């Protein structure tokens, strides 16, 4: 809300509750606000002071701005008057000839009225000392002024029931420290829970899902390490920093991740081999169709097709050899044929064979449009006459006259 006061000196504003009985505490004052640096106008009159009061988003009343209005004058440049006294040349009447005026004023057509009119248009006589009489000019208008208003911010001294800025800053810093401590504690607790969850998860999988992917001695050693970690969590590891729990989890994963990878390889290897086989089989069918003279592939280059056929056969032989080597290994041994290697070989075969065997067939050449004969040039009158004389033009049949 904007309020306007007329003041000649600093003044105070007091804000309070209008219904003290509805206030849940003893104090009814909202605050005392002192507006300083107020002075009268140059004429000694009270100055206009504008006060802006508001209630912020937290429901706290405050005076956020005070401004002093000051009037001042500015000079408005005057416009130059237009000279309207210049004599306009007379326009001659139709049928008459304009007669130039001279210093003397002869009678015009012997008419006394016209002679008097001509004398009135003569320039004023020179002064007695021989100098020309000065021309009279319109007096210059005085400069005009315009009043404007500018506002100056006034300082506000506030006395409210609140903590001083130093205390508020101290409390804000303490709050930031507590937030940081809460985050550190949350991260520490999550790291500790991750260690505990890994212990329980791997212990169950070692005796179930991952049992055939680890030798007996390695499984017993790993189980003992998991049990020791569990005991440590409830003893020395009860209240450790985040990094300690992270290091403990990394130590357990260095033993458990190889076992998990063996299981994942055995689970996803058949699908990767099947994808490789489908791609190789499709390329072999294309090569066989080309060799059989299929018109669909007659545009392919034979050297490129044979090169692709050789590459596909090499990839197939590689997969057969690696699959046989993998079949001879125990499931708890590290694989020699990985899913990543199978996918890489599949992609390499596709990039080499697909551009050659899937090359689009070129479109047949379009037939050339028939050449149009040049139109005959119409004969001119001279040529027509000459042709008529030579007998080239047939005469029209004669009509029989009346009987």
DSSP helix count? 7
Order of helices and strands: EEEEEHEEHHHHHH
The strands making up the biggest β-sheet line up spatially as 1-4-5-6
> Whole-number average pLDDT?
81
Oligomer classification: single chain
Radius of gyration: 56 Å
Global morphology: flat
Largest sheet features: 4 strands, antiparallel
Distance between the termini: 121 Å
Low-confidence segments, ≥5 residues, pLDDT <50?
90-112, 391-403
Description:
The structure is a single chain. This protein is an alpha+beta fold. It is built from 7 helices and 7 strands, in the order βββββαββαααααα. The protein has helices at residues 112-120, 165-206, 216-233, 242-291, 302-327, 339-357, 381-389, and strands spanning 2-7, 11-16, 29-35, 47-55, 61-76, 144-153, 156-159. The protein has a 4-stranded antiparallel sheet with strand order 1-4-5-6, with no helix packed on it. Strands 2-3-7 form a 3-stranded antiparallel sheet, with no helix packed on it. A hairpin with a 5-residue loop joins strand 4 and strand 5 (61-76). Helix 2 (165-206) packs antiparallel against helix 3 (216-233), helix 2 packs across helix 4 (242-291) and helix 3 packs antiparallel against helix 4. The protein starts with a strand and ends in a 14-residue tail after the last helix. 9% of the residues are buried.
